[in-house]
Amino acid sequence: MALVWLLLAAIPSLLLLTQNQLFPLLDLQSPLARALYWLTTTGTAPYGVATVLVVLALAYCYMPKALFINLFLAISLSQVLSLSTSHALKSFFKEPRPNLVYLSEQALPDDAQLTPQTFYQLAKPERSQAIAEALTELQTRTSAVKLSPKIHQHWEDEIGYSFPSGHTIFAVTLVLTASYYLLLAGLPLFTSALLVWGLLMGLSRMLLGMHWPQDVLFSTLLAAIISSLSVFVVEKLRPRSKEQPNG
């Protein structure tokens, strides 16, 4: 699990150390941006539930039953902890998203101008409307960031705070928790596929302008703590028998 976590944390760590970020480097109308949008939806409610169910269904097919039960319990516990922790921390830190900071730095007309301070004082429907108005004005400029329709809508929908990244906590918690049991079951290819998905989730959040590198890095660290705690609790409450695979 430590190696998996190091791989997941490497990119945001490098960006933070070099004081760089990935937004707005990517053309958000490109096929790559659209692919990253669809990937990021696998961590967005309600599709994140489907992602967990797919992982559980595949694990059920290839793992010993007793080991699968532990995996199911650990994933269930870790996801409850990650969701509640993410919501609590967002409300505490109140960090604006990169896309909002970007929009606030543009010289827009008064009726479309955004500032992070006033934006988060608005009700959620009003925040979405404010983003829509700013983007409508921005799209008339040749040098401005251009968004595909789906990403445009994503910006209007994701109007909460930035820190930490809920998508990253969800994905990395799932990857680390599942990987522990998948490796015990001798399923390295399944683990590798999950690792790639987790890496791309963090990248997608930064490239789409939804999170800063520190958001993704801290979320990766928090996910490791939650995952380790969940596995520890499950293994203590329901220890595996000697007959089960032990790696």
From TrEMBL:
Q: Which residues form a coiled coil?
A: none
Q: Which SUPFAM superfamilies match?
A: Acid phosphatase/Vanadium-dependent haloperoxidase
Would the keyword Glycoprotein turn up in this protein's UniProt record? no
Q: Which domain of life is it from?
A: Bacteria
Protein name as it appears in the record: undecaprenyl-diphosphate phosphatase
TM region(s), chain numbering:
45-63, 169-196, 216-234
Which controlled-vocabulary keywords does the entry list? Membrane, Transmembrane, Transmembrane helix
Which EC number(s) does the record attach to this protein?
3.6.1.27
Q: Where is the Phosphatidic acid phosphatase type 2/haloperoxidase domain?
A: 66-231
Catalytic activity annotated for this protein? Answer: di-trans,octa-cis-undecaprenyl diphosphate + H2O = di-trans,octa-cis-undecaprenyl phosphate + phosphate + H(+)
